[in-house]
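To: structure subgroup
Subject: Chain for Friday's discussion

All,

I'm putting the inputs and outputs inline so they're searchable in the archive.
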Amino acid sequence: MRLARLLLGAVLALAAPLAGCTGADEPTRLSGVVTVATGNQGGVYAEYGAGYAGLVERLPDVSGRALHTGGSVENLDLVDQGKAQVAFALADSAADAVAGRPPFSGRSPVVALAALYDNYVQLVVRADSPVHSVKELRGARVSVGSEGSGTTLTAERILEVAGLSGDEDVTTQRLDVRESTRALAEGRIDAFFWSGGLPTAAITELRRSTPVRLVDLAEVVPPLTRAYGELYTQTTVPAVVYGAQSAVTTVSVPNFLVVRRDMPDAQAYWLTRLLFEGQPQLIRAHPEARRLDRRTAIASHPLDLHPGAARWYRQSHP
C-alpha cells in the first residue's frame, strides 16, 4: 500500500505514474522490484494483489510483481525472509506469526499497512451431499486448503472444535481452491474448505458446471471463539453471492496488507497512500476492494500498524 510528484487525478486514472512528497520533498525511496505475495489462482488475494501490484508497477523506477502463493502462512514467511515486500495475510495466521507459534518457527517481524476486508470461511459440498454440518464430515474426504495457506490453519481449527481429527475422522487433502473445485466436481473429494472474500471466482465458476452449496457453520463459532479468541466472528454469506436459496451462517476473519517492521517509514507511507488513492482500480480487480475504508483500516489487531502507515492515516484524516 505506498517517486516524483503527481496529481491524485492522474493516479486514479492511471494515466501517469504516482509521485509526490510527504509534506516537503520526501521521496518514496521505492525502487527495483516490489513483490506482492498474494494467494491461490482463482482466489481473492490473487485478483486483489494483481491489482495492487499493477498500481505499484506505475511508479517510476519500480517494477510491481504479484506472486501466486499457497496463502497467508507462506506469505508471512516470505515477508519475514525478505522474499516479498508486501503480502496479504489473515489475522489468525498473523497472530501466530508474531507470537512465534506453529506453524511458524519464530517470532515474525510483520506489521500492518491496513486492514482490508473480512474473509468468509466457505465449506463447499455438492448440492445433493448428505453433509449439513461440520460434524457430518466424519468419514469424508475433505480438502483443507493448500500447503502454506491460512485456509488450512482455520479449517483445522474448525474440525478440532467440532470434535473431528484431521487424520482419524476425516481424510484430509491439501489442495488449492482451483484444485479443490475440480476434485469436488469429479467426485474425488466430498467437501472443501476455502477462506476468502466474496465472491470467490473459482467457486462461481464451479457452480456453472456442478450444483453446490455452502454448509452452515453457526455451530462452530462459539467453541472457535472460546478456544482461539475473538478474531473469529459470526457472519452471513448472502444468498445472492452464489445464487443460493437462502443465506448461510459462517465464520469471518480479518485480512491485512502486511510488511516487515523495519521497512523505512517513507516506503510504508507511500504504499499505504497508493492503496487508497488507487482504490478505483482495485475495485475493478475485485469488488472486495470496496470495503477498504481509512476509518476501519487502522483496526490491525493483533498486528501493530507500521509507523509510516500510521502517519498517512493521521495526515489524510479529514
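Points worth raising on Friday:
Residues 1-25 have pLDDT under 50 and may be disordered.
The first strand starts at residue 32 and ends at 37.

D.
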